[in-house]
Design brief:
The chain is mainly beta. The protein has 5 helices and 50 strands.
Length: 682
């Protein structure tokens, strides 16, 4: 059940019971102050109109926050201002006319929003499509961001969310058009939920929960915005009648806000609008699912989800969930059967360091293996390292032509093994096509580095860049320790857009096994220090790249021990004994196998994570939220058919405070059509 649609359906069909014709009071009605008002055209606001010989030369936005002006479209007759047209108030008469704006404030109204609400007070003659407004991102009909009009026998409202040709609309049932009759036409789009609603005089006549794919509108301003006609040249679908008032909000109004604006317009123009049954409480409704499982205090838990059976399991929550010794309930993703979830219990135990001469486990995807203990791969000039060859691919060679930037090779540095010493300005680079293509068109990277360094500033283990400078946006993959933490940076595409994952604590002047995983396909990133997860992001590429393979573009620079600027910096100030890079995301079992190998080899403590699946249940239900007052009693009611009796859902609920929210959940009968909360009188 779409919470957006349910929210409005339950309110407008349960809270607005019966209709009434509202009349003017002694004081003119005032538009309620509601956030999100971006455009207000009011023919009764003489200060917002420039009129010459009865013709409207300008119609300006009556809000003070925006600078929006509409003027007659060149080549069309200007509309006319007619006095005393509706309830003693003026209206703008359109007949082959159109008002147009090039105001940046107006062209940006539909830019990057989650929803829109439009009110229009109008009158027109029958025949053909007649447009209240059309907002475009181009000139073709399918470029409409928003269109709102009355057609031959009905009303229509629609548009599109993205900068594509995917647009759709909603149409009221046949014979709902108001010919030569004033009406309050209202449309609501929730781009966020992909839903759309259409009202006439406060009555919901059409709704569609499959309007479009959910999401915000694109961050692209409109190119055309007209009132009273289409946005084509020459114009068509001209409004043949009057428009008295027009409002646009750049969000979905709540039912209470919607009612307040509608009541204002109805009172101002003496039109029909449903009365609010004051005994019905403003209620929000959402279909929910709860995943429940038992926990043990002191242990950690992760929830995993897969989109397709057999596909990669990915975490639902950002961080592990700490056990409480009792049951835990959380909300899983909206999609997926129970079989698409797993709950895993974590236990940590220290690896018993074994032999100092272990064998590297055979794990697919090893593309880079630099090992200072492998004398055949280190070419020296005395103690200075001229080349460090990849043990996994002899054609991949890292070198340094400048003797002043060469690292130093020393024996017996860590657990009796040698290491390369990078002393603040040393680095190695490569021109090897195999190395420059290592991150080309891959789903993920897994990195291990055995290193020691002094504290202070950003220090690079390794950096792979798609460009020839040190900017973060050029980094395909970057692994380093910063002043107080560890970091990993990476990007999937060739365009600017990389993200950083930060983990703590930093190991200063202490040997450590650093692990990194950049999961480009899953949009996730991980940091490990000596086997312990030290940082993670489940939205690693959010706001930059979309998840997927890396681009098919080879790196331009690949350095060990520095960044990739024209004049390198951020040098590694310490030692590197071994480095491994795999062109995929290793499983936890594979990572721990490599970690045990490095721990045994260098005598570095390493933590193993023991995983075990535990039982859980997923239950569906409805979550309701409403405000209560202490001393009052409330009752939940439902019906499947409007006009049928309302049925109590159970016992009464006592108010718990002053305007205090109450949450109620149900685990059955979630398919009821309409709900309401009613205050119970004594």
């Amino acid at each position: 059940m779409d919470p957006f649609r349910s929210f409005f359906r339950l309110f407008y069909f349960a809270a607005f019971l019966g209709g009434a014709s509202l009349a003017w009071s002694d004081d003119p009605p005032q538009l309620p102050e509601i956030d999100g008002l971006r455009l207000h055209l009011d023919a009764a606001d003489t200060s917002a109109l420039t009129v010459s010989d009865g013709q409207v030369e300008e119609w300006r936005d009556s809000t003070t926050a925006n600078d929006i002006t509409f003027s007659p479209l060149s080549g069309t007759n200007p509309p006319e201002l007619h006095a005393d047209v509706i309830n003693g108030l003026p209206a703008v008469h359109f007949s082959g006319s159109s008002l147009d704006t090039r105001s940046p404030d107006a062209l940006g109204i539909t830019n990057d929003i989650a929803g829109i609400t439009i009110f229009a007070v109008g009158w027109n003659r029958g025949g053909g499509a007649q447009t209240y407004t059309r907002i475009m991102q181009g000139t073709l009909p399918n470029h409409a961001r928003v269109f709102f009009y009355r057609a031959t026998n009905d009303h229509r409202f629609g548009g599109r969310r993205l900068d594509t040709d995917d647009f759709s609309n909603i149409t009221t049932p046949t014979n709902t058009r108001l010919n030569e009759e004033w009406g309050i036409d209202t449309g609501v789009i929730s781009y966020e939920h992909g839903s759309i609603l259409l009202f006439i005089n406060g009555e919901l006549l059409a709704d569609d929960g499959g309007f479009q794919d959910p999401g915000r509108t694109s961050p692209t301003d409109s190119t055309n915005f007209r009132i009273g006609s289409s946005a084509r040249d020459p114009i068509d679908q001209e409004w043949d009648g009057y428009i008295a008032e027009f409002l646009i909000y750049d969000r979905v109004l709540s039912p209470a806000e919607f009612s307040a604006v509608g009541s204002y317009l109805a009172e101002k123009y003496a039109l029909d609008w449903p009365e609010l049954d004051l005994e019905v409480i403003d209620l929000s409704l959402e279909q929910t699912r709860q995943m429940q499982f038992d926990t043990v205090e002191g242990r950690d838990y992760i929830v995993l989800h897969t989109e397709d059976e057999g596909a990669t399991w990915r975490r639902v929550t950002e961080d592990p969930i700490a056990g409480t010794g009792g049951p835990i309930a959380l909300t899983p993703p909206a999609s997926g059967s129970e079989a698409s979830f797993r709950v895993v219990e974590w236990q940590h135990e220290e690896h018993n360091i074994g032999s100092g001469d272990p064998e590297l486990p055979s794990v697919d995807g090893l593309r880079l293996h630099l090992d200072a203990s492998d004398g055949d791969t280190v070419v020296r000039d005395g103690v200075s390292v001229v080349e460090w060859r990849n043990a996994a691919d002899e054609e991949m060679v890292f070198f340094q032509d400048d003797s002043g930037h060469r690292p130093v090779y020393l024996d017996d540095i860590v657990n009796g093994r040698p290491a390369l010493i990078f002393d603040g300005n040393h680095y190695l680079r490569t021109d090897s096509p195999a190395a420059l293509g290592l991150t080309n068109d891959v789903e993920a990277l897994t990195f291990f580095g055995v290193g020691w360094n002094r504290g202070g500033g950003a220090q690079n283990f390794m950096r792979i860049s798609k460009g020839g400078d040190a900017s973060v946006t050029a980094a395909r993959a970057m692994f380093y320790r910063a002043t107080n933490d560890h970091r990993v940076i990476g990007g999937r595409l060739d365009e600017a857009g990389t993200q950083t994952i930060i983990g703590t604590p930093r190991l200063s002047q202490e040997w450590g096994i650093d692990g990194r995983v950049l999961d480009f396909a899953g949009g996730e990133g991980y940091l490990y220090i000596n086997g312990v997860e030290a940082g993670r992001s489940v939205n690693f590429l959010a706001g930059a790249d979309e998840p997927g393979h890396t681009s098919p573009t080879d790196a331009h620079r690949f350095h060990l021990g520095s960044n990739t600027a024209d004049s390198p910096g951020q040098f590694w100030d310490g030692d590197i004994a071994e480095m491994l890079l795999y062109d995929r995301a290793l499983s936890q079992e594979e990572r721990q196998a490599v970690g045990r190998y490095l721990s045994d080899r260098y005598g570095i403590p390493y933590s193993l994570t023991i995983e075990s699946d535990i039982d859980f249940v997923v239950e569906g239900g409805i979550s309701m939220e409403f405000s209560t007052e202490l001393g009052n009693r409330y009752q939940l009611e439902w019906t499947d058919e409007l006009g049928a009796p309302w049925v109590s859902w159970g016992g009464e609920i006592d108010g718990s405070g002053v305007n205090e929210s109450v949450f109620v959940s149900f685990d059955e009968e979630v398919d009821r059509a309409f709900f309401r909360v009613r205050r119970v009188d004594d």
